[in-house]
Amino acid sequence: MSPKQDTIMSFQESKYLTSFATILIVTLNYAFRANARWQAGDFDGEAGLSALGASVLWFVGALVVAGIAGQIALSILRGMTGGEVDYRADERDRLIEHRAMNAAFLAFS
Fold first, then answer.
1. Burial (Cβ within 10 Å: 0-12, 13-18, ≥19) of residue 67
2. DSSP letter, residue 39
3. Using CA atoms, how far apart are residues 48 and 25, in angstroms rounded to an integer?
4. Distance set, CA 69 to CA 20, 21, 47, 52, 94 (Å)
5. SS in 3 state form for 42-97?
6. C-alpha span between 85 and 75 (Å, rounded)
7. Could you give the CA distance from residue 41 to residue 95 in angstroms, rounded to a whole number?
8. Would you list the DSSP string of 3-37?
9. Backbone angles phi, psi at 91, to 5 degrees
10. What angle do CA 100, 91, 76 make, to 5 degrees?
């Protein structure tokens, strides 16, 4: 392994870090916007629950779009910088991915 490869994160690590950053940014953005709407009284009254439901649906859609865009940007950046993109995953990588997904679902809920 060359010294350059020792200092660069693996593709799997970069993928999880990008996913975490994307989820964090979109969730914080949603939380601030939803709090502002709640303070303004948008979720009160008869139409409050439907407004809240629409807000959550937009949030989930934004998470999906931002997640896909983040992964595409990561792959492009790794390709432009000469980083190796290795899509292979062994059992350890799958276990790490499973635990990361569990942590993400727990934080999201």
1. middle
2. H
3. 25
4. 13, 12, 33, 26, 22
5. CCCCCCHHHHHHHHHHHHHHHHHHHHHHHHHHHHHHHHHCCCCCCCCCCHHHHHHH
6. 7
7. 44
8. HHHHHSPPHHHHHHHHHHHHHHHHHHHHHHHHHHH
9. -65, -35
10. 60
Question: What tens digit of pLDDT does each residue of 57-93 get?
Answer: 999 999 999 989 998 998 888 878 876 666 677 787 7
Rounded to two decimals, the pTM is: 0.70
Report the range of poorest mean pLDDT among 2-16, 29-43, 68-82.
2-16
Copy the structure tokens of residue 28. 């914080």
* Burial class of residue 15 (count of CB atoms within 10 Å of its CB; 0-12, 13-18, 19+): buried
